[in-house]
């Protein structure tokens, strides 16, 4: 895996410097920290309970029968998504709390859903945030041959229909993580020599991931099959539906932020050097959506403010609506783009158009 470098000087360096200064001043003037607050604590309790309580109600027999079991698993899907989007995400960026142990503890909540906190931090924090929309480095746009998310990826005949079948593959996201992706990725990270950022050895990483999987499948799947008075098929169906719903929700939040016609897909020049400084690269490759939908902002952990998140991943998402105006104003001052879709529906529509275009055109002239 050949990494790239970003320049630190140039005309846009003044933009990054002023933006950091303005955002820092906002926190100082309002006597705020960049971390979470009581709202985050309430949200954390709410999302964790939304995941755990349905399981308890099901496993203790308070809710029973086929419809009850399926319903509880679907509620768990909402809790799983909420934990991932609104709690674990901030924690793994070190933005939830000033205490590292709190961030580490809450970041590991992904393990409750069968994922791997080790892999998440490497894929998301290191590769996606450092190399957004760069072919071959950003794993969010390199997920397999059946999906073409970048104009720099080879187009196959099947891609003609990817705007139709994408939703099925999106729904498989979390179950693929649980079953195989974590093991596949850990080998990639070992080869890329970035695994040492998270654990002391490859063997220790494999042990931790394997133990997490065994415990997860025992508690969330095997235990209900053993104790519930419903056919095993009902439990398996509920488990699968839980992951299909959670995978679809997570994908629909993340993909419209980076794969649309307005986004750039830059390639490095000589010596693996990118054209833009990191802050400008993030502006060109990231988009917001539904910025005025407060309920959506609360539910998905401020990830409709992806521009702010990519510029300031170490700031808790509860602050994004306030600093968004600073980012927009500063970007416009320097003649830089600030991408945003007015609604979630329009963001999804823009994503679908891009999927269709990527599926039917080899060459796509894009900004940036």
Overview of this protein structure:
Strands 1-2 form a two-stranded parallel ribbon. The longest helix is centred in the N-terminal third of the chain and has 28 residues, at 65-92. The model has no long low-confidence stretch (mean pLDDT 93). With 368 residues, it is mostly helical. The chain has helices spanning 13-29, 38-59, 65-92, 100-107, 117-130, 162-171, 173-191, 202-227, 232-254, 278-285, 294-299, 306-311, 320-333, 344-360, and strands spanning 287-289, 339-341. It has two domains: 13-34 and 266-359, no CATH class; 38-257, no CATH class. Helix 2 (38-59) runs antiparallel to helix 3, helix 3 (65-92) runs antiparallel to helix 4 and helix 3 packs parallel to helix 9.
List keywords for this structure.
2 strands; 2 domains; 14 helices; 368 residues; mainly alpha; 2% strand; single chain; globular; two-stranded parallel sheet
């Amino acid at each position: 895996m050949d990494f790239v470098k970003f320049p630190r000087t140039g005309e846009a360096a003044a933009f990054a410097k002023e933006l950091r200064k303005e955002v820092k001043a906002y926190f100082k003037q309002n006597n705020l920290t960049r971390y979470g607050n009581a709202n985050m604590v309430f949200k954390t309790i709410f999302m964790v309970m939304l995941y755990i309580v349905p399981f308890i109600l099901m496993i203790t027999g308070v809710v029973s029968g086929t419809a009850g079991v399926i319903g509880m698993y679907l509620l768990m899907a909402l809790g799983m998504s909420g934990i991932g989007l609104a709690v674990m995400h901030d924690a793994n960026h070190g933005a939830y709390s000033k205490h590292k142990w709190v961030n580490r503890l809450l970041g590991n909540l992904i393990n409750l859903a069968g994922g791997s906190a080790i892999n998440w931090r490497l894929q998301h924090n290191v590769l996606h945030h450092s190399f957004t929309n760069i072919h071959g480095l950003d794993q969010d746009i390199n997920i397999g041959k059946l999906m073409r998310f970048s104009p720099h990826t080879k187009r196959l005949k099947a891609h003609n229909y990817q705007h139709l079948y994408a939703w099925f593959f999106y729904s498989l996201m979390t179950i693929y993580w649980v079953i195989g992706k974590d093991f596949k990725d850990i080998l990639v990270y070992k080869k890329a020599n970035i695994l040492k950022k998270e654990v002391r050895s490859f063997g220790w990483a494999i042990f931790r991931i394997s133990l997490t999987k065994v415990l997860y499948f025992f508690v969330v799947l095997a235990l209900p099959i053993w104790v519930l008075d419903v056919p095993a098929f009902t439990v398996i169906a509920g488990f699968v539906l839980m992951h299909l719903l959670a995978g679809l929700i997570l994908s629909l939040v993340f993909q419209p932020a980076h794969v649309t016609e307005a986004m750039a897909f830059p390639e490095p020049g000589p010596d693996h050097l990118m054209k833009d400084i990191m802050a400008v690269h993030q502006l060109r490759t990231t988009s917001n959506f539904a910025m005025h939908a407060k309920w959506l902002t609360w539910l998905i952990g401020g990830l409709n403010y992806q521009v702010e998140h990519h510029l300031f991943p170490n700031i808790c998402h509860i602050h994004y609506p306030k600093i968004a105006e600073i980012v927009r104003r500063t970007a416009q001052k320097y003649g830089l783009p600030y991408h945003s879709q007015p609604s979630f529906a329009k963001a999804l529509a823009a994503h679908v158009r891009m999927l269709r275009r990527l599926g039917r055109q080899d060459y796509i002239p894009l900004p940036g």
